[in-house]
Amino acid sequence: MxxxxxxxxxxxxxxxxxxxxxxxxxxxxxxxxxxxxxxxVRGVPALLYTLRSSRLxxxxxxxxSFPGGKCEPADQDVVHTALRETREELGMAVPEDHVWGVxxxxxxxxxxxxxxxxxxxGPLDPQSLKPNxxxxxxxxxxxxxxxxxxxxxxxxxxxxGGHFCYTLPVFLHGPHRVWGLTAIITEFTLQLLAxxxxxPRLVIPGLSRGQRPGPK
Length: 216
Hints:
With about 220 residues, the protein is an alpha+beta fold.
């Protein structure tokens, strides 16, 4: 049952599975961190996403993302970066004790490390949030059940010089397409929350189980 992932037992299981990585990665330097908000929308477990403002500079404007951004010198660690950025972008203050742990880091095209931080934010109405219009155009939630349905899952093959490089997951048929690093982080989250219910789409040739994936 998907509702079990938000139960006390489900939270304890996730915290236990993430404990080692969290202890190892939380204090390490990183370029950026994002919060993966696990919420309950009208009683349904869901993940909360943002649509980046079309007014932002850079190649990622208008993309779907999780709330987050660059690590600042004043941040104690990646958890504080993710919580600070979420407060700045959405006006949503998430207590530190609601953080379940740190997920597998991912890497952008410049090889910069982006650390996802999973948190349970409880019952939430996305429409009640007041996002910063300079950073966010829209806030929306996708139910876990939607993300786990095969018809809402896809993949993109990337090739270079006529040779296969890697495959990234894509999540479809929501208000906006979820792709890129956000889709990879979504995949990691589904594998943690619903073990056995999700077939991973991420494929990078030569990547061993001990390595951390991310697009080249």
